[in-house]
Amino acid sequence: MSLVDSAVTATLPKLLQRNAEQDPNGAGIREKTRGVWRTYSWKAYRDNVRDLGLGLAAIGFKRGDKLSVIGDNRPQLYFAQLAAQALGGVSVPVYQDSIASELVYVLNHAETSIIVAEDQEQVDKALSLKAQLPCLRVIIYDDPRGLTFYDDPILRSFESIVEEGRRFGQANPGFYEAEAAKGQADDTAMIAYTSGTTGNPKGVMLSHRNMIATAEAFIEVNDVKAGDNWLSYLPMAWVGDAAFTLGMALIGRLTANCPESPETVQRDLRELGPDVMLAPPRIWENMLTLMQVKGSDASPLKRWMFECFRSLAERCELKRSDGKNLSLADRLGLSLGEFMVYGPVRDQLGLRRARWCYTGGAPLGPDTYRFFRSFGINLKQVYGATEASALIACQADAEANPNTVGRPIPRIEVKIDDRGEVLLKGANVFKGYFKQDDVTRDTVTEDGWLKTGDAGFFDKQGHLVIIDRAKDVGKLSDGSAFAPQFIENKLKFSPFIREAVAFGDQRPFVVAMIAIDMQTAGTWAEKQGLAYTSFMDLSRKPEVAGMIGTEIAKANATLPDVQQVKRYLLLNKELDADDAEMTRTRKVRRRFVAEKYAPVIEAFYGGAKSVDVTMEITFEDGRKSTLNSTITIHDIASAEPVRRAA
Fold first, then answer.
1. CATH number for position 595
2. Beta carbons within 10 angstroms of residue 187's beta carbon
């Protein structure tokens, strides 16, 4: 029987209560602060949620009210979400790096009445918007540092609310338990706002049933054990974090671990050594870049050893994926490589203990995928959508494949319509968009099928293959297929390329705008004796452009002729979410970028050697500035084929 079918486990707060009763001393959630890991048992976890919930009730929070959390991953912000849900309210996590205009839209649209902020930075942001948020009644802060002399009446400390909750609980015994018991599986648990690749974010209403059913299905096909350590470092506003840190952790009794800060994630990851992990492609690409840079900086002997065993591992991984047996020499080489290279690399990444790792949120290039699998990391693909409570399909251990996203999770239906769009139906499909019934009707068919907006198909083994966003898939002028993400992932395998945006729909050939990786490209420039002062200065160096051209030529050698990049330029700034060029989850806003860089695209196809670019830059405080520059356009020379997995 599903947990949502039981009155005592039908909501996330009820699951927390179950864990506190069945495993009171087990580790529920943990945080690292001032260099020390602090653990909350399941009982302490429940007690903190209860006391905070009573405090929220004491200050007027009612069933149906909305509570937003903003900040880095902290237990107190998860306590706040569950406390709101226990009272019949709705949690609305927002991105901690959002600029003012983004926050105003989401907080107003969601009708947020209480904000729980991590620290002074987030409090300042919320206070600056107070006049524009008519529904806002209280701002609760967790970290008091820097807030001693703030006297705004709307401000309350986390501890003061908890203390008020304890007094309220003494005066109203049984209140929290009675309110939590009223919760039903189909109540809205949270509103998760989409990344907004095509416009303003949409508020996706997810019920407790949605989140619990999705987590149950995932656990059914994966090796999940009670007490497994999970690193909670993904943005809380991203539905993937909610699916794991709240849904999966509460159902499977995983221990969520909050790192000390975003800057210490890699160090904390190594120290923790999680049993399971989920990361978006950008994280895996950053890890790959780190390994490539360390390999190139090593002594000649160590560099030769790294490349030798890396090449062996990738050849063996290709053999395995093709169903071929490994030779005795292969097996002996892998055993030696495990001792010399593979094990130490996994240890450096903090993944020596990880039984499985997933990549999701966007496609990961097959070269990057195979690199990690060849080094003994059980990396697999997962596919989902916010409207599907984060998960639609995932790969089993024995079915890992860089070209698919696996089979649909249990108890959902997936089909491909006549236009090639992926549709699904099941308990994970959201309740609808908040205050946008017309958009909901456009997204969910009358008979309940969710339109994902992704183009895909099923292969002969019944695995789902995602080609690209349906609206992004196009054709070159000769009719050849053009899938920009596939090309971009090939380019981003280079450690010197941080972002790439490819164009080619209805055009005679493919072109690309490249944003260099400042760290690795800068290190390369220093080794060449090239002085530079800024990202713009570095990107304008002819030597850097030539080096990137060589990297693109290598990627071209793994692409069909018609999809090879023929012309490129180096952007004089990084693509930035503050400038609306990317979403907060690092997805390119293609329509906006195409409009913003329209003169660049015309120059590409007009045969120009350079283009004048004027662009607006947004600073963190909301101020804007204009950047004018002339950017050189480069042509790609044909490359000799290189031996790299397609």
1. 3.30.300.30
2. 19
**Nearest CA to 430 among 155, 628, 188?**
188
Q: How far is CA 464 from CA 58, 364, 383, 495, in A?
A: 49, 15, 9, 29
The first and second tokens of residue 202, run together, are 């949409």
- In 3D space, the residue among 489, 491, 482 whose CA is nearest the CA of residue 510 turns out to be 482
The single-letter DSSP state of residue 283 is H
Query: Within this chain, do residues 381 and 494 fall inside the same structural domain, yes or no?
Result: no
Beta-bridged to residue 204, according to DSSP, are 192, 433
**Rounded-to-integer distance, Cα 54 and Cα 67, Å:** 14
Determine the Cα angle at 283 with ends 277 and 286, to 5°: 135
Parent domain of 380: 281-352+354-469
With contact defined as beta carbons under 8 Å apart, do 192 and 387 qualify? Answer: no
Rounded to whole angstroms, the Cα distance separating 549 from 544 reads 8
pTM: 0.84
Over the stretch 115-148, which tens digit does the pLDDT of each residue have?
A: 999 999 999 999 999 999 999 999 999 999 999 9
Give the position of tokens 């998860």.
Answer: 78
Consecutive H or E run containing 611:
strand 610-618
CB 165 within 8 A of CB 57: yes
Q: Bridge-partner residues for 432, per DSSP?
A: 205
Q: Hunting for tokens 């306590």 — which residue is that?
A: 79
Residues sharing a CB contact under 8 Å with residue 82, sequence separation 6 or more, in sequence order:
12, 13, 16, 49, 53, 91, 246
